[in-house]
Amino acid sequence: MATRPSAASIDEYIEEFPEEVRERLERVRSLIRQTVPDATETISYAIPTFDLNGQHLVHFAGFKKHIGFYPVPSAVEAFKSELSAYKQGKGSVQFPLSRTLPEDLIRRIVEFRVHEIGGEASE
Question: What is the pTM of this model?
Fold first, then answer.
């Protein structure tokens, strides 16, 4: 991960990475936007974040060998079996750059978070 005290925007955050990582970050961003067009982009905890109804929906981040995805512990638990192939933390998962990005899974996790927050995902 690039050394950065704080990016002012998601665009600024993403542009600091090598092309391979930038492409993955942009794809995750696009999936979230498509799933929840009403979500607000921000930077929180120094990483890209989408908020909905005044609450953090999901966060994501770039690293040298993976994309970090932070949907909170309840979402990681709800998708535990599908996420078992990936390194996980209490509320996080790592998608290695060496593997195909699990776009459908990311979309479904975002939809799960939207329903937890009480919002609506696009159909």
Answer: 0.90
